[in-house]
């Protein structure tokens, strides 16, 4: 299907002075696409300063889910796939995990790692084949290890080796949510535009409230990071200051 972009001033009968484009499909259907000169960060900051929708809010019981804070993604300077958005990200994650344990609330850590053959990465691992390619994060490799700065309780915390973007996909995370009777997920980790977003969408699709502490998620590039925070904030969950998440855990009564 071919499409033609026209300024709204070129469309007969258009009412209004909005700065947008109209997508004219050959079937005669018209779809207005808003246009902005703002960056993804500026768009996010705008709705952060003046929210267009109320928050979902925390529910009765939260589960902290830390998405892939492993060396492949946290060791900047060692691995090309690594990134850092807030230098205090891992410190905040440790603080949330400590508070959760103190209240006997569940803490989950996920990581991606694959067989030597890479076959469990499936089609996702077929686009490239370099040392930095996803399927080459092997089980037991340094890339698969959690960052040394993390404070993980190997006895109490739940560790999940996931293969796909969402932490819910073909893992026992859903069963854990049911067992612990949690109705809220607090998500940290990375990347914001990848595995965090995928887990956010899967979580709300399962009926869970989603909280994303802004300082606790990261991405390699600014535009995808803030574009996805924008999407999460207006569609799927609450993007909140980490101070709000900390306060919720500190005040949680059960």
Account of the 3D structure:
With 254 residues, the chain is of the alpha/beta class. It has two domains: 3-35, no CATH class; 62-112 and 148-251, Isochorismatase-like (Rossmann fold, 3-Layer(aba) Sandwich). It is 29% helix and 20% strand. It is built from seven helices and ten strands. It has helices at residues 40-49, 71-74, 89-102, 173-179, 192-205, 222-236, 242-251; strands at 3-7, 20-25, 30-34, 62-67, 107-112, 158-162, 184-190, 209-213, 217-218, 238-240. Strands 4, 5, 6, 7, 8, 9 and 10 form a seven-stranded parallel sheet that branches. Strands 1-2-3 form a three-stranded antiparallel sheet, with no helix packed on it.
Task: Summarize, please.
29% of the residues lie in helices and 20% in strands. It is built from seven helices and ten strands.
Sequence-ordered SSE layout with sheet pairings:
Elements: E1 3-7, E2 20-25, E3 30-34, H1 40-49, E4 62-67, H2 71-74, H3 89-102, E5 107-112, E6 158-162, H4 173-179, E7 184-190, H5 192-205, E8 209-213, E9 217-218, H6 222-236, E10 238-240, H7 242-251
Parallel strand pairs: 4-5, 4-7, 5-6, 7-8, 7-9, 8-10
Antiparallel strand pairs: 1-2, 2-3
Helix pairs in contact: 1-6, 3-7, 5-6
């Amino acid at each position: 299907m071919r499409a033609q972009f026209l300024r709204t001033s070129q469309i007969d009968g258009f009412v209004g002075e909005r700065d947008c484009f109209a997508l004219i499909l050959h079937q005669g259907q018209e779809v207005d696409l808003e246009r902005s000169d703002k960056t993804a960060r500026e768009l996010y900051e705008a709705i952060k300063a003046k929210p267009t929708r109320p928050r979902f809010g925390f529910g009765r019981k939260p589960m902290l889910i830390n998405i892939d804070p492993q060396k492949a993604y946290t060791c900047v300077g060692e691995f090309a796939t690594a990134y850092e958005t807030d230098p205090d990200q891992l410190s905040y994650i440790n603080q949330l995990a400590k508070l959760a344990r103190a209240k006997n609330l569940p803490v989950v850590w996920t990581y991606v790692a694959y067989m030597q053959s890479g076959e469990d990465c499936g089609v996702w691992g077929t686009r490239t084949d370099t040392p930095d390619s996803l399927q080459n994060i092997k089980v037991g490799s340094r890339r698969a290890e959690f960052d040394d700065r993390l404070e993980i309780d190997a006895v109490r915390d739940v560790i999940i080796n996931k293969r796909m973007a969402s932490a819910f996909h073909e893992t026992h995370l859903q069963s854990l949510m049911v067992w612990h009777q949690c109705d809220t997920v607090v998500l940290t980790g990375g990347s914001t535009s990848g595995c965090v977003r995928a887990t956010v969408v899967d979580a709300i699709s399962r009926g869970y409230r989603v909280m994303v502490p802004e300082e606790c998620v990261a991405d390699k590039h600014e535009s995808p990071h803030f574009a996805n925070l924008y999407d999460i904030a207006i569609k799927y969950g609450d993007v909140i200051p980490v101070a709000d998440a900390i306060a919720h855990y500190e005040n949680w009564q059960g």
